Amino acid sequence: MIETSYDTARLKFLGEIIPGNSPPSSTYNKDGDGVPFIQGSGEFGDEVPIPKKYCTEPSKIAQPSDYLISMRAPVGELNRADQQIGLGRGVAAFRANNSILSNQYAWYALQATIHQLERVSMGSTFKAITASQLGSLVIPLPPTDKQQEIVAFLDHHIFNIDRSIKKKQHLYDLVEEKYQAVIEERFTLGLNAKEDFGTASWTVHLPDKWSLSRGKGLFREVDKRSIDGTETLFSLRKDEGLIPHNEVSDKDIPPSDLVGYKKVKAGQLVMNRMRAATGLVGVAPSDGIVSPDYAIFQTTELADPHFYQMLFQTELFKTLFRSRSNGLGTGSAGFLRLYTDDFLALWFPHPPIEVQKRIITDVSSQLERMNELLEATKQSIQLLQERRNVLIKTTVSGKINVSDWEPPGEKEEAAV
Hints:
The chain is α+β, with helices and mostly antiparallel strands. The strands form 8 sheets. The chain has a 5-stranded mixed sheet with strand order 3-5-4-9-6, with no helix packed on it. The protein has 3 domains: 1-141, DNA methylase specificity domains (Adenine-n6-DNA-methyltransferase TaqI, Chain A, domain 2, Alpha-Beta Complex); 142-210 and 351-416, Bipartite methylase S protein (Helix Hairpins), CATH 1.10.287.1120; 218-312 and 321-337, no CATH class. Helices cover 35% and strands 20% of the residues.
């Protein structure tokens, strides 16, 4: 429970809790018929939800200005209702009793205390809370006049912090956009996504000395299996590439469960065939093992694996892989697999090996500088977000005295 100098009360005594439920699936649609409907935090936006479907017979409805709370993992995510919204089982609404709890103060109080729900959430693999547990959430309850003082103080300071976060995020997005543009420009120059792309008759305008080569002339699939599962397990990640599994998961996998996994050697190209259309490709930094669902390719002496890793992560080649993948689903979603025979049958741009290495060196140098800026900006955003959270929590708890605080404009008028 949050430490506070104010009185406290459980949420169920401060307003109405409206838990969601699941109407018949036949009442759902995407045509705008009925009430916008959300099922969980997956449809939460920065502050207000972004519904993906509608419901003609919702039995639980949030009203504008109600607060929306995620009841399933991640538990305790918050949004505001900006319109009537039907509530699915993964979300609940809270409607404050404004005679004792102002709506604006409730927003900050929930942000300051909602983390308590993580401790009471149930489920070993899929965390969730009940309406009763939500109702037991304890929040500070200062007098209504003090609530207004807290709101005025936080509105001013949070506005400035959020403005700084947006500026930093805009910079981050611009650098990310430039990052991708550098790759696209250097690796897909003279290429296009016409009907014949990826074939021997692909109409291209390649730089001097570049040619088109078939996949089977550049790559050879390798499939050797671990007999004891003791090698380092690698996993593919979109931004990090192929990295040790223990860097992205706390789950300890015994060697006996890894027997039969594919052995990979340093420098080999690894592809997640189910997600090739999203650019999930990496180069092994050292020897180890990977999932049997991955494909491993040894490049010839005329192909640099790092060059083709970057090439396959461009939008053009993600589109190409998507067009050649088979299975259930459409676009980048669903169970789409790029089979090895289909991959090796494609034609790829093939510069001389020395040109490939020079491009990798030049682009890596540019990307390294951009990565440094991205990382610094990311850390700056995280610090601002931490400052925001701490400010809300300490103010709502009464650790910051806001009684004598006045908005800057009012102070200037008083001085005149």
